[in-house]
Amino acid sequence: MRRVFLDANVYLSFFRFGKDDLETMEKLIRLQGENEIKIVQNDQLRREIFRNRAGVIANAMKDADKKISIKLPAFVRSHPDFKMLNSQISTSSSLLRKVLSDIDELVENSELPADKLIARITESSEDMLIDDEIMEDARRRIELGDPPGKNGSIGDAIHWECLKRIDDLQIYVVSSDSDFFSPISRKLNPYLKGDLHGYALSDVHLYETLTDFLSDCFPSFTLAIEKKKNQIIAELSQSSSFSTTHALVSELSIYDTFTFAQAERMYEILYENNQIGWIATDPDVNALYKKIEFKAVGDEAVLTQCEKLLGWDKFSLTIPF
Fold it and tell me: pLDDT band for position 285 (50/70/90)?
């Protein structure tokens, strides 16, 4: 049986998932029931999920207008079907307001599909007790500047101290948080690897996304959201105009995380396609690449040129500890 720790950013990503991906995540519960995996949690993790839930939902809903409007020139009003069109727009706007009102109620009562899924996973998860010793060791990590943890935040340090004490040979960690990764590879930070010495836990299998974990351990499971990202990145590579580039960048910008493989391909595209490279300093393009700045790995010549195109002095490749 595999013990699996999903970081808070993984659970929060459920609020961005569509129906297909949420159904895939339901299989995690089935895997627990079949003793294929055992998901581990602690109180700190559950607080992080609850604390950040509203912000994630608000960000996802920020572009949801409560009125449907179409800007048409005045002479269109003379068309014989205009009144029917206007009536249908009004009806659709009323239906949209009802839908959004219903969603607001589900959000308020924590009854979104993602809420229910997280609750079911939590019910069947294994709890990691946070005792005084763990808190003391976590605070010491922060004071000494040892990973994981950044900007004085103790959460990741608590998680790590809990994970170290798991009475098992290995654990599977899924997190997009850079603190767990080596600054020079996609593997566990060497400092954390050495930190396991003397504990029963001897190995940590680290994954950036649930897709990576599921593909490696349960190949039959796939997530539509990762397929969609890869599709947009592929379209970006073929962009033949600035307007198309901006449109595709807008589509990619709704995602907060990208895998190392996706980031590497995006830098190659920036290097290869002038329709991206020539507008790399535009705010939207630059902001998108800022999301993957610490994942700037690959061909040195490609990355050097990307720095120039983006107008950056150098990449911030060092993961903040």
Answer: very high
Nearest residue to 168 via CA among 26, 38, 11: 38
- Distance of alpha carbon 155 from alpha carbon 79, whole angstroms: 62
Q: Which residue has the tokens 């592929």?
A: 234
Q: Which residue has the higher pLDDT, 15 or 17?
A: 15
Question: 3-state secondary structure string, 154-165?
Answer: CHHHHHHHHHHC
How many Å is the maximal CA-CA distance in the chain? 82
Percent of all residues in the chain with a pLDDT value above 70, rounded to a whole number: 95
Backbone φ and ψ of 38, nearest 5°: -135, 115
Domain boundaries, the chain: 2-61+114-217, 224-310
Looking at the DSSP assignment, which residues form a beta bridge with residue 37?
2
Q: How far lies 269's CA from each of 22, 169, 246, 276, 302, in Å?
A: 31, 41, 14, 8, 10
> What pTM, to 2 d.p., does this model score?
0.69
CATH match of 2-61+114-217 with 1.10.10: no
Query: Cα(19)–Cα(247) distance, rounded to whole angstroms?
Result: 24
Q: Please give the Cα distance from 196 to 165 (Å, whole number).
A: 9
**Whether pLDDT at 174 is above 80:** yes
- Taking each helix axis as running N to C, give the angle between helix 283-290 and helix 300-310, from 0 to 180 degrees, rounded to the nearest 10: 140
* pLDDT tens digits for range 142-162: 999 888 876 678 999 999 999
In order of 21, 29, 88, 316, the CA distances from 63 in angstroms are 22, 32, 22, 31
| Alpha carbons 295 and 184: distance in angstroms, whole number | 9
Cα separation values, 231 from 210, 225, 235, 237, Å: 18, 10, 6, 10
Amino acid 316: pLDDT: 58
Is pLDDT at 317 greater than 60 in this prediction? Answer: no
